[in-house]
Specification:
The chain is an alpha+beta fold and about 170 residues long. Helix content is about 25%, strand content about 10%. The strands form two sheets. It has a three-stranded antiparallel sheet with strand order 1-2-3.
Length: about 170
């Protein structure tokens, strides 16, 4: 049976967490003083006691850094301003109807709802920039992907019609 690693502790829990019994683990976790235990790497963020996941961070802080650019928690948005999805789009609920903000704006400009296969493209690539001049309605996903491919080609080499060669020529 495993025992707690704190000297003098006689608590023999079935659940040993990072070498501590549940009582000592909770005390250390709440006080923020739990450090590296038994050679297990921990997150780089100060006062974080979670174990290493990727690039020096725990799973929580790694995903925050990846999606938000910072390890801090996302600021809580005011009620009625919507939420940002994991893919970076703003989604709002108005009168019980949940829609992406860019779709809602395009439908307001058009004066009708979008067809079921239509997609909305953000010209500058910023999914939170929902100004009218930044949105383009695409009739279907194929056209949307064509615009994305041409944008990538233009950004890569300065010409929207050029594509990366998929066949390597031998000389």
């Amino acid at each position: 049976m495993k025992t707690c690693s704190v000297p003098g502790c006689t608590n023999h829990d079935l659940k040993i967490i990072r070498g501590y019994c549940s009582n000592h683990y909770q005390n250390l976790r709440n006080s923020g003083k739990l450090q590296k235990v038994n050679g297990v790497k921990q997150c780089y963020v100060p006062d974080c006691i979670n174990k290493y996941y990727c690039s020096g961070y725990c799973r929580l802080h790694y995903h925050r850094l990846r999606y938000n650019g910072t390890t801090n928690a996302q600021p809580i948005r005011q009620s009625g301003t919507g939420c940002i999805t994991p893919y970076g789009y703003l989604r709002r609920s108005i009168a019980g109807v949940i829609k992406f903000e860019h779709v809602r704006i395009v439908e307001k400009v058009l004066g009708k709802s979008l067809p079921s296969k239509a997609h909305v493209h953000h010209i500058d690539g910023n999914k939170l920039n929902n100004e009218n001049r930044n949105l383009v309605v695409c009739p279907d996903n194929a056209y949307h992907m064509l615009i994305e491919a041409r944008t990538r080609a233009y950004n890569a080499c300065g010409h929207a019609d050029w594509r990366k060669c998929k066949v390597l020529s031998t000389v």
